[in-house]
Amino acid sequence: MSRPAHRVADSRAGRVALFGWLSWLALVAATAIVLTQHASAHEVRPAYLSVQEEAPNEFSVLFKTPMRGNARLALTALFSGKIETLTPVVSRPTGDAMVQTWRMRTLEPLAGQNVLIDGLERTMTDALVRVQFADGNSWTARLTPSEPSALIPAFQSAWGVFVTYVAQGIEHIALGFDHLLFVTALMLIVRDWRKLVKAITAFTVAHSITLTCATLGWLTLPSAPVETMIAISIVMVAAEVVRMERGRLSLAITRPWIVAFAFGLLHGFGFAGALVELGLPQNDIPLALLAFNLGVELGQLAFIALTVIAVYSIRQFVSIPRKAIVGSAYAVGTVAAFWSVERLDAMFL
């Protein structure tokens, strides 16, 4: 005997909903695994080369490269002209990077030479190069695995500085998985687009304030506690998602913009730490700061737009049940809890 039509329809609807739920959770789980793996991959952090002219044709050099465990990335800074090394290379580890310093004399003008980060093409990281001449002119460039060398000009335009630091801001937020995970948790709480705009604006304003203050040296915090608290902030917001789905109320649920602003102040110190590590051109600090912040915002908005489009596309085929939202919150919270323990452990080692 055949089953009634409505039972068949209900069964199919149930299978579709279950398929949608499992697909959603699988996507979240896969994303969480990828984020966890990338979070421990130090290679994504950029290298940094600073060359500063101390006397005519004499330069002090600082070269910072990321560490993988106890070994640094095999990167070498090379110049196309004739170079004479004046002092031995001094190496010292600083947490997750190796800093090398030395002095050199150029037998040919440095302007007009090519600088090459040898070995960069075999990595997944970038390198920021900054050259400061004694006459006040400076040049900043971002080298990549596909373009590991560049020509050093005698002068760099303001537009060149702007483009370089916008790109650095976009890259930092794209690889700043903790910041992106916080935004994801915030989006799980705020379902109304007007409230979402308000919360994201509050987050942006807040981290712009502390990014500026910390970068300019007006207000600083140690990086290790900041990074730990950023991870804990994600756990707290993820917990609020679960509370909301259980019908409970809290400040994060009723006034999400306040929580976004408060935690945004904390995240701004994290952005500032990255910018300070990159270094700022002394003659264009305000411009570089503005460009980096703009890059961060562009990257953040692109992430939000892609997430909204992805969720909307999924909803065209299957409905996303409430359990999927709770599952997403647990996935986000689990990854953030892992980071919290990892960073707390690193603080006390």
TrEMBL record:
UniProt keyword terms in alphabetical order: Membrane, Transmembrane, Transmembrane helix
A UniProt-annotated Pfam family: HupE_UreJ_2
Residues spanning the membrane: 172-190, 202-220, 226-244, 256-276, 288-312, 324-341
The keyword Transferase is assigned to this record: no
Protein name according to UniProt: HupE/UreJ family protein
